[in-house]
């Protein structure tokens, strides 16, 4: 017996340890009884009161997490706002176009600009409508603001149009107020100009320039722009700079007017010029 | 008796700190905090041996369980194991050396690994987390964070020793 007690005495550390482990395990499996719940209620109150006292201490890591989360939310919201703005602007543009389409007397084809050059001397736009939409070479391209240019090449689903900022495009135009005629052209830099206007012609800054009935390519009366500079070029002609109504940097949708030059008129003018020679 | 009261007071103060202030310094997305009670428990275990270490671990773990509103008995089980393990370093000749040197940090780390494995392995039973997940996400970070905090008492102990 003595030996047994001595042996157990040597093992008392392990016996106590094992007993505590067993008690812990019993407690784990006895969870959720009434006594424990009661103790927990007291503990909740104690902890709550103490934590409340320490709540003035800012949790840097929590703030960092919150900050990160807010930044992410901000990015998402910014994206959403940007998309909504884009949709609103598109809606406005399309509304204007629908109104314009109803106003104009010509049949039109609505197209979206899918390619554009603005920094060359022969600038063009590519439109997503083509021969399959009855678009033909020579048809004018306009927006609700005014003249854009003229179709110069077509394929089944696409067309290329020269714009006013193209050295090869010349447009017969007139001053809307005083009916003074001239030729709208671009010499490769700066604004477009109205040429062949005599020194004595009645042209003022702010006058609106429209296409003239003398033009064989464009119907008369399409707005082009307004006069910004009017001074004398030489002894005979004026130097008239014109600001386009169409903003070529931002324009996105256009109309192709189903208008082609009158062949009979063309033919007669050709014959007459040959006779005169 | 006074000595035991002192240990009890230290552990109680650490429990209060653990359940109040320490939650403000949590790190990682898994809200890892240092285990200050374990540092105190290792101190008691080294000073008084396996029996005191086990009992201190059981009592402090039980108090933590009550305050944690989780499994009652789980922290008691983990802390009993950690207290018992730290009692292995109770040695009349080496106790002071252990407590005043960075060996203390190593002992805390060992005890922390035992404590955390027991606690988290039970705690995450029935979840999709594998043992390796538990080890990487909870056991090792908690051990490292606790070990870092255990440097503080060593620094104080060394300064006091040099001051003498």
Q: For the residues shown, what is the average pLDDT of chain A?
A: 84
Radius of gyration of chain A in whole Å, from Cα? 41 Å
What would you give as the CATH superfamily of the largest domain in chain A?
Rod shape-determining protein MreC, domain 1
Order of helices and strands of chain B: HHHHHHH
What is the name of the CATH class of chain B? Mainly Alpha
Number of domains of chain B: 1
Per DSSP, what share of the residues of chain A sits in E-state strands of 2 or more residues? Answer: 25-35%
Radius of gyration of chain B: 15 Å
Query: Which percent range fits the helix content of chain A?
Result: 25-40%
Number of domains of chain A: 3
Low-confidence sequence ranges of chain A:
none
Shape of chain B: globular
CATH topology of the largest domain in chain A: Thrombin, subunit H
Number of strands of chain A: 12
Mean pLDDT of chain B: 88
* CATH architecture assignment of chain B: Orthogonal Bundle
Termini separation of chain B comes to 27 Å
Topology as H/E string of chain A? HHHHEEEEEEEEEEEEH
> What topology, given as strand order, has the largest sheet of chain A?
1-2-5-4-3-12
Main sheet overview of chain A? 6 strands, antiparallel, barrel
What does this protein look like?
The complex is a heterodimer of chains A (277) and B (164). Chain A is of the alpha+beta class. Chain A has 3 domains: 2-53, no CATH class; 67-103; 108-261, Beta Barrel (Thrombin, subunit H), CATH 2.40.10. Chain A is 38% helix and 27% strand. Chain A has helices spanning 2-10, 12-29, 34-54, 60-103, 263-276; strands at residues 108-116, 122-127, 140-142, 147-154, 159-166, 171-175, 181-185, 192-195, 208-211, 223-232, 238-244, 253-257. In chain A, strands 1-2-5-4-3-12 form a 6-stranded antiparallel beta barrel. In chain A, strands 6-7-8-11-10-9 form a 6-stranded antiparallel beta barrel. Chain B is mostly helical and 164 residues long. Chain B has one domain (2-12, 32-163): Arp2/3 complex 21 kDa subunit ARPC3. In chain B, 76% of the residues lie in helices and 0% in strands. Chain B has helices at residues 2-20, 36-48, 50-68, 74-87, 95-100, 103-123, 131-163. In chain B, α2 (36-48) packs antiparallel against α3 (50-68), α4 (74-87) runs antiparallel to α6 (103-123) and α6 (103-123) runs antiparallel to α7. The longest helix of chain B is centred in the last third of the chain and has 33 residues, at 131-163. Chain B is globular. The model of chain B has no long low-confidence stretch (mean pLDDT 88). Chain A binds chain B through residues 12-13, 16-17, 20-21, 23-31, 36, 39-40, 43-44, 46-47, 50-51, 53-54, 57-59, 61-62, 65, and chain B through 16, 19-21, 23-27, 29, 49-51, 54-55, 57-58, 61-62, 65-67, 69, 71-74, 76-77, 80-81, 84, 87, 122.
């Amino acid at each position: 017996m003595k030996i047994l007690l001595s042996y157990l005495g040597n093992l008392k550390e392990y016996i106590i340890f094992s007993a505590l482990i067993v008690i812990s395990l019993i407690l784990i499996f006895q969870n959720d009884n009434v006594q424990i719940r009661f103790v927990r209620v007291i503990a909740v109150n104690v902890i709550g009161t103490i934590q409340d006292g320490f709540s003035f201490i800012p949790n840097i890591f929590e703030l960092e997490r919150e900050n990160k989360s807010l930044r992410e939310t901000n990015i998402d919201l910014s994206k959403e706002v940007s998309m909504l703005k884009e949709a609103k602007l598109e809606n406005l543009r399309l509304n204007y176009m629908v109104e314009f389409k109803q106003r104009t007397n010509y049949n039109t084809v609505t197209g979206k600009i899918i390619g554009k050059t603005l920094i060359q001397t022969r600038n063009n736009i590519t439109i997503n409508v083509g021969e399959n939409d009855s678009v033909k070479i020579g048809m004018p391209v306009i927006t609700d603001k005014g003249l854009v240019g003229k179709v110069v090449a077509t394929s089944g689903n696409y067309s290329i149009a020269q714009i006013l900022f193209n050295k090869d495009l010349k447009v017969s135009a007139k001053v809307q107020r005083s009916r003074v005629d001239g030729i709208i052209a671009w010499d490769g830099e700066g604004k477009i100009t109205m040429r062949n206007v005599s020194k004595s012609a009645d042209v003022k800054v702010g006058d609106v320039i429209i296409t003239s009935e003398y033009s064989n390519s464009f119907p008369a009366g399409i707005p082009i722009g307004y006069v910004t500079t009017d001074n004398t070029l030489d002894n005979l002609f004026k130097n008239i700079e014109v600001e386009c109504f169409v903003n070529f940097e931002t324009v996105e949708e256009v109309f192709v007017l189903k208008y082609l030059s009158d062949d009979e008129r063309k033919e007669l003018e050709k014959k007459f010029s040959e006779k005169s020679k | 008796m006074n000595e035991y009261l002192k240990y009890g007071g230290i552990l109680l103060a650490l429990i209060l700190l653990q359940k109040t202030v320490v939650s403000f310094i949590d790190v990682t997305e898994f809200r890892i905090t240092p285990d200050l009670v374990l540092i105190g428990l290792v101190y008691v275990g080294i000073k008084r041996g396996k029996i005191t270490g086990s009992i201190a671990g059981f009592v402090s773990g039980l108090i933590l369980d009550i305050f944690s509103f989780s499994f009652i008995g789980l922290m008691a089980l983990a802390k009993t194991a950690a207290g018992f393990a730290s009692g292995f370093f109770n040695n009349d000749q080496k106790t002071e050396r252990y407590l005043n040197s960075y060996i203390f940090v190593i002992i805390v780390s060992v005890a922390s690994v035992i404590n955390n494995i027991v606690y988290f392995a039970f705690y995450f039973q029935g979840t999709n987390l594998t043992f390796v997940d538990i080890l990487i996400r909870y056991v090792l970070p908690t051990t490292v964070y606790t070990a870092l905090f255990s440097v503080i008492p060593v620094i104080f102990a060394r300064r006091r020793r040099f001051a003498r």
